[in-house]
Write a structure and sequence with these properties.
The chain is an alpha/beta fold. The chain has one domain: Rossmann fold. It is built from ten helices and seven strands. Strands 2-3-1-4-5-6-7 form a seven-stranded mixed sheet, with helices on both faces. Strand 2 and strand 3 form a beta hairpin. The termini are far apart.
Length: about 325
């Protein structure tokens, strides 16, 4: 498959962004955030983004039926009508390909036209546990930067729209007012969910204690960023149901009966809603400190990057001596 050149990616991005901006400008202040919601799935290559989108839209699809990998930026949509409502909520679903060149396309789904009703989903490949924390930190930083820029642009061009967003952010912040770890928590500017995919591979190939500690690390990151955390597998029905329940609530405001599913048994795929976890429940890494740096270093110790082999470098340096 031919590679997508940077210029082609930029042209593609600017074309769609211009169209979105035009549509956005035609809306009135009252309707701009009423019935449309945008969600972006992002993550590394082959982390399961497209499969999650596919299973959300088509719940009965066979697990063996694998969708084609996303090349640049894929778009789908879903509509949902709540009981007693004459209107339907339209969800714009974007799936960003894992190539680094595609990061230039973030401005399409994350913009002043969408940030008022935006959900972000970061997918992590649990079959490569060494990559989970580095990829999570990368996307948290990248997405926060894009959201902040979009909010600044919205503030300049549409003050009423910004008031709507500020009200939503205030509600999220107030939900942590009584949280025991409120001093640690900096909620993301928009709703965020972290998906850990391929749980079945992690469960079959990784020592239970290491698996538990990876789950604890991801719980910590979800807690401090105000995110939902869902670990899942296409082969695990309960985790797929949890994934759909979280997305239905975030996109359509449909709360499952009895609330969102919570599963904190580390021998199974973890599922915990934003704000429902705590440092006390998660526990501490080996350093005894509840910080992202401590968890990052603990994960580097448990899951060293297999591509980093310092002994080979030493061996090569020794050969140069002869």
């Amino acid at each position: 498959m031919a590679k997508v050149k940077k210029k082609e990616v930029d042209d593609f991005s600017s074309g769609i962004f211009a169209r979105l901006t035009e549509e956005y400008g035609q809306r009135s202040a009252g309707e701009e955030f009423a019935n449309d919601v945008t969600i972006l799935f992002c993550g590394s290559k082959k982390s399961g983004k497209t499969s999650l989108v596919d299973r959300f839209i088509n719940p009965t699809k066979d697990e063996k039926d694998q969708p084609k990998a996303t090349v640049a930026l894929d778009y789908k949509f879903a509509r949902y009508a709540t009981e007693g409502s004459s209107s339907k909520v339209l969800a714009h679903i974007y799936d960003l390909g894992g190539d680094e060149a595609n990061e230039n396309l973030l401005g399409v789904p994350v913009s002043k036209a969408t940030v008022g009703n935006l959900v972000l989903a970061i997918t992590l490949d649990l079959s490569e546990p060494h990559s989970c924390v580095p990829n999570l930190e990368k996307w948290l930083q990248l997405l926060r930067s894009h959201v902040d820029k979009s909010l600044q642009a919205l503030a300049q061009e549409n003050p009423p729209g910004l008031l709507h967003i500020d009200a939503q952010r205030a509600l999220r912040a107030n939900s942590y007012a009584e949280h025991p770890d409120r001093g640690f928590i900096t909620p993301f500017p928009v709703p965020l969910v972290i998906f850990g995919t391929k749980w079945d591979v992690l469960a079959s190939e990784v020592d239970p204690e290491k698996r538990k500690n990876l789950s604890r690390a991801l719980r910590h990151y979800a807690l401090v960023h105000g995110a939902h955390l869902v670990l899942c597998s296409l082969k695990e029905k309960a985790s797929m149901n949890a994934m759909r329940s979280v997305l239905r609530q975030l996109l359509f405001g449909v709360a499952p009966k009895g609330g969102l599913p919570e599963q904190l048994d580390h021998s199974k795929p973890v599922c915990v809603a934003a704000g429902k976890d705590s440092v006390q429940s998660i526990g501490l890494p080996s350093s005894g400190q509840a910080s992202e740096r401590a968890w990052r270093e603990f994960m580097q110790h448990l899951f060293p990057d297999p591509s980093f082999q310092p002994w080979k470098r030493v061996q090569q340096d020794c050969l140069r001596c002869f």
